[in-house]
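Example for tutorial group B:
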C-alpha cells in the first residue's frame, strides 16, 4: 500500500484513462475531415431493382408523376418518385399497391 491507497484501484484508474485516450484517437482518425470518402455516383436502375418498392403504372412525364405522387400523399399512402431507366416511376410498398392503383384510377 502506497500512502494508504489500494494500488490495484489506483492503477486501474490509469487504465481507464489510457482506454479513453485510445478511443479518442480512433474516433479522431475515423471522422477526420482531411480524408476523402469514396462516394459512388447515383445511378438509375430498372423498375424491378428497388427491393420492397413496387412500380405503379408509368406516367408519361415528370409533371404527371408529380401530380400522381401528390394524390397518393393526400390519400396517406407512402410513395416515392424515382428516376429509372424507363423514365420517372412512382413506387409504393406491396401492401399499398392495390390501394394506390385505385386512388390513381379515380
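The residue assignment follows.
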Amino acid at each position: 500500500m502506497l500512502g494508504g491507497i489500494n494500488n490495484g484501484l489506483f492503477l486501474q484508474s490509469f487504465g481507464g484513462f489510457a482506454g479513453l485516450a485510445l478511443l479518442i484517437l480512433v474516433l479522431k482518425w475515423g471522422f477526420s475531415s482531411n480524408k476523402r470518402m469514396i462516394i459512388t455516383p447515383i445511378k438509375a436502375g430498372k423498375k424491378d431493382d428497388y427491393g420492397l418498392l413496387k412500380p405503379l403504372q408509368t406516367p408519361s412525364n415528370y409533371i404527371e408523376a408529380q401530380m400522381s405522387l401528390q394524390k397518393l400523399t393526400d390519400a396517406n399512402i407512402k410513395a416515392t418518385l424515382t428516376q429509372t431507366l424507363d423514365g420517372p416511376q412512382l413506387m409504393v410498398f406491396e401492401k399499398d399497391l392495390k390501394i394506390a392503383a385505385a386512388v390513381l384510377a379515380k
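The chain has two domains: 1-39, 53-105. Compare this with the pattern of hydrophobic and polar residues in the output above.
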